[in-house]
Amino acid sequence: MSDQRNLASPVLYAPSVETVDDDEERLTREIVEQMAASNRCAFERHRHAIRDAHAKSNGLIVGELEVHAGLPAELRQGIFAEPKTYAVVARLSSAPGDIHSDKIPAPRGFALKVIGVEGERLSPDIGGSNQDFLMVNFPVLAFGTISKYKTMLSLLEANAHAPDTFQRLVAGTARGAKEVVEALGMTPGATLEGLARDNHHPLGETYHTQAAIRFGAYIAKLALKPASANVRALAGQPVPVSADGAMRDAVSAHFASHGAEYELSAQLCTDLATMPVEDAAVLWREDQSPHRPIATLRFGAQASASPGRQVHGDDVLSFNPWNGIAAHRPLGGIMRIRRAAYERSSAYRHTMNARPRVEPAQAQDIPD
Fold first, then answer.
1. What Cα–Cα distance (Å) separates residue 94 from each residue in 57, 332, 346?
2. Which pLDDT belongs to residue 167?
3. Mode of pairing for the β-strands spanning 131-136 and 108-114
4. From CA 218, how far away is CA 271, in angstroms rounded?
5. How far apart are the first and last CA of the chain?
6. Cα separation of 317 and 330, whole Å?
7. In terms of Cα–Cα distance, which of 222, 228, 343, 238 is closest to 294?
8. Is the pLDDT confidence value at 181 over 60?
9. How far apart are CA 314 and CA 93, in angstroms?
């Protein structure tokens, strides 16, 4: 753990840390409808409703989250206030809002549902008593504000629904450009990072909330990185992509005989000017506020892609950053728009597939 004497004081949370633009309500309506139209087109192609983001599952795993004992006061916040072990379920995914071959590089997602948490609910209508944290394998968004997201949405949707050969070309070109930028000593932009993903093993990746959340009395971003030797060894390792479901198969092969451990950390906001809440495209620098461990995530060997798991993860479960407690309220425009977007997507998916939305009350609710 970092030497606390050298850490700047964290910024206290207050509602005023968020700033809502005058046109946010209009932009939200337009974006949600545009995403809904794209989602309806995907339904007609597949004759099955899918998520409008992170549509493709790469595995569904159950485990436990152990909150560390002896945390300093500023990290003992929300569900991390006391040393405790929670049951969890996690969905590993690929980011596009359609189902594509894994021959196409894509960002990867890690959605974590912590089961049985106490506290004031952000969305009581969802039911249950769980806390969802949604993470992606790079730390910032290319579209960090609602207005930028509106501009980017058509490009993202066109790329998501483009033919596979075109997407492979885009990804290859972006990787080449990224290498040139890095060779010149510059930092690639978030858009280029998103397009230039490699087909690295998803279990070796580090995942980030990207946008800020309330962290009890403070503000933070969370990250999840490999901790056990077997998944640390997978960092940066390419997955052979001769099969369309190569990522699912790689995750399934690992968990067929091995477990995994990850470290969950919090990066506290210490300066709203350089670590903004309203622009998720701005990287919070670790030399200003390092990530500090708060919990360990453990998974045992299991069948991560059994038929029951795949159907349950795709058609029954939902993961939503607004499914949680007030102490971990999502912050910033991108998080605010997700409230409307995720609820619309979930309602449409469950209605069209004639499946009830069910929040698990225990790990045993997830099929083997």
1. 7, 24, 17
2. 43
3. antiparallel
4. 12
5. 37
6. 20
7. 222
8. no
9. 10
Residue pair 289/270 in contact by the 8 Å Cβ criterion = yes
The pLDDT of residue 170 is above 50: no
Q: Which residues pair with 113 in a beta bridge?
A: 89, 132
- b/e per residue, 41-65, with b = 16+ CB within 10 A? ebbeeeeebbbbbbbbbbbbbbbbb
Residues in the chain: 368
Interior angle at CA 69, CA 13 and CA 221, nearest 5: 35
- Write the DSSP assignment of 272-314 as a string of letters: TTTS-SS-TTS---TTTS--EEEEEEEE-S--TT-HHHHHIII
CA distances to 143, 164, 172 from 39, rounded to whole Å, are 20, 18, 27
340 vs 31, 251, 307, 344, 345, CA distance in Å?
Answer: 10, 31, 30, 6, 9
Amino acid identity for residue 274 in this structure? T
Distance CA 305, CA 60 (A): 7
* Residue 161 vs residues 45, 62, 164, 224, 263: alpha-carbon distances, Å: 11, 31, 9, 29, 35
Q: Which residues contact 203 (CB under 8 A, 6 or more apart)?
A: 92, 226, 231, 234, 250, 251, 254, 260
Check: CB of residue 366 under 8 Å from CB of residue 312.
yes
How many C-beta neighbours within 10 Å does residue 177 have? 14
Rounded Cα–Cα distance for residues 75 and 145 (Å)? 27
pLDDT in tens, 2-15: 445 568 999 999 99
> Picking from 35-49, 60-74, 186-200, 297-311, which range would have the lowest pLDDT averaged per residue?
186-200
pTM of the model: 0.89
User: How far are the Cα atoms of 16, 48, 83, 173 from residue 99, in angstroms, in the given order?
Assistant: 40, 11, 40, 22
